[in-house]
Amino acid sequence: xxxxxxxxxxxxxxxxxxxxxxxxxxxxxxxxxxxxxxxxxxxxxxxxxxxxxxxxxxxxxxxxxxxxxxxxxxxxxxxxxxxxxxxxxxxxxxxxxxxxxxxxxxxxxxxxxxxxxxxxxxxxxxxxxxxxxxxxxxxxxxxxxxxxxxxxxxxxxxxxxxxxxxxxxxxxxxxxxxxxxxxxxxxxxxxxxxxxxxxxxxxxxxxxxxxxxxxxxxxxxxxxxxxxxxxxxxxxxxxxxxxxxxxxxxxxxxxxxxxxxxxxxxxxxxxxxxxxxxxxxxxxxxxxxxxxxxxxxxxxxxxxxxxxxxxxxxxxxxxxxxxxxxxxxxxxxxxxx
Amino acid sequence: xxxxxxxxxxxxxxxxxxxxxxxxxxxxxxxxxxxxxxxxxxxxxxxxxxxxxxxxxxxxxxxxxxxxxxxxxxxxxxxxxxxxxxxxxxxxxxxxxxxxxxxxxxxxxxxxxxxxxxxxxxxxxxxxxxxxxxxxxxxxxxxxxxxxxxxxxxxxxxxxxxxxxxxxxxxxxxxxxxxxxxxxxxxxxxxxxxxxxxxxxxxxxxxxxxxxxxxxxxxxxxxxxxxxxxxxxxxxxxxxxxxxxxxxxxxxxxxxxxxxxxxxxxxxxxxxxxxxxxxxxxxxxxxxxxxxxxxxxxxxxxxxxxxxxxxxxxxxxxxxxxxxxxxxxxxxxxxxx
Lengths: 337, 337
What we know:
The first copy, chain A, has helices at residues 51-73, 111-119, 128-139, 199-202, 204-215, 222-226, 236-244, 248-272, 288-301, 304-308, 321-333; strands spanning 14-20, 24-31, 37-44, 80-87, 91-92, 97-101, 106-109, 123-127, 148-153, 157-163, 166-167, 276-280, 311-314. By secondary structure, chain A is of the alpha/beta class. In chain A, the strands form three sheets. Chain A has a five-stranded mixed beta sheet, with helices on both faces. A five-stranded mixed beta sheet of chain A has the order 11-10-9-12-13, with helices on both faces. In chain A, a hairpin with a 2-residue loop joins strand 10 and strand 11. In chain A, helix 5 (204-215) runs antiparallel to helix 8 and helix 8 (248-272) crosses helix 9 (288-301). Chains A and B meet through strand 10, helix 8 and helix 10 of A and strand 10, helix 8 and helix 10 of B.
């Protein structure tokens, strides 16, 4: 069968991207040059079923998006050249092993080769936040920049660093834990054991927790209504919704969130002098209500030349950043991007 | 005159290094490969005499160390190929301009070309803390490492970053301001305008200030005696001296200093996953009394794999790190190091 989708007589090459999260697995297909995107699907991770079951589900989803892409483009199986995988870390990229993932309960799990063997394609593994940052750099909000600080804000706060145009991994692949800088040395205890980490103030659950604490004062707020009085159900999304409805208490929590993020990002400006700080994740839905006071806090705290050099922007790829970046990881490893 | 000091019949090439500080100017000569060091001299900066006078003094000192090196080695003038200059910043490396230096009172001063014209040798300019870090990497405590975080602790706290084996400069040459990360968002006001910067707790003057505050409680301390009761004369050196004599209050200030530095360095471990953190400056004279509790604080706060990958060490080059690094800056710019 002749392939369609070729450029100048050369058949397109396709790469599968896998974004493995604690809650969901997202898998998609892109051309190796990042210009086309096909089949993007998401399923629950169900980590409780164990690592073998999760791998099986990933493999099946890879096969499904490959088949879907073939149906849409007429590509042959041989045009699919590999798989990029983004996973929570820490991990050993060279050996393709996930060392520890508290969310999934894995230890020293050979994720890369298990997926590669299942789909019969070679694969590359990197950290999920690295992938999201690389995705935004490849075809998203940070494209064209050589110095990029990426923050992924969700259940935790992850980080990715693109320095001089390449992902920075550090001495043993654990660089970029940007959620775990202490901005208040005697502050809130963080899950990592440290005190006052950015993540302890501005992750999704931390935002929700601060909202619950604020509600403890007895001030009336739309937030209580939105969760029908069950404060445990308050999430960061509840806070942003309420703030958008003009709720004062929620607005305060959003501005405080902006301030905490601004403190951390001012540190990153003084450290990295980046061209772009790109923020990925649900909090970006808060829009300018978050970004405006955040940028103001950074201006108050960071060195003026570093502020002048830097854009602070939400990601453009929404839920796709991790998959796009995973594809880019594989493409870069093969010298294609 | 035939040159001596040649290797395998090839005449050695010499580079002059200039380390410009707010208090002193240090100038020396090294071979381009870093293997030999000649003539190292220091004079007061006397910034109050104005930029022209400072340049004149630097040029004269360059001529003096060149002459001294020629006398010792028999090298011809042609064997001196250039000058590396380390200066307080921020600066524009490409144009060779010092943009602002509060300590010297300069603005947009073309330091590189003024020195180059004066000595009739080409020159390269970089930040002083970058130079000190590069010096320790080239022939000092961080040699052989690909990921290095350097901290220079003196009147302020400067930083230098060697990432993937090269100095990292950021988007506009102002990266690496490692003294200006906030470790306590509502803490001490820093000279830079931010609050709770590492520099506000652990620079030389900040250490002295905390010692004065501790003495305010009326506890007896050797520190008062060392300055004959004039507390304004207390310096970081006073604190370290007293601690070494077993003074309890001074010991407390040293341990507190170690803690503050440990908080900041734990952040750098989580961010950079470096192989080496090298600390340069007078505080290193405190030795293990400082480094032991500092490392313990880092272990308590940073991620275990990042701790496992990293040595935290004092610099080896003492007052020479800046000059050595300035030489390395020039050598690297010409592809010689």
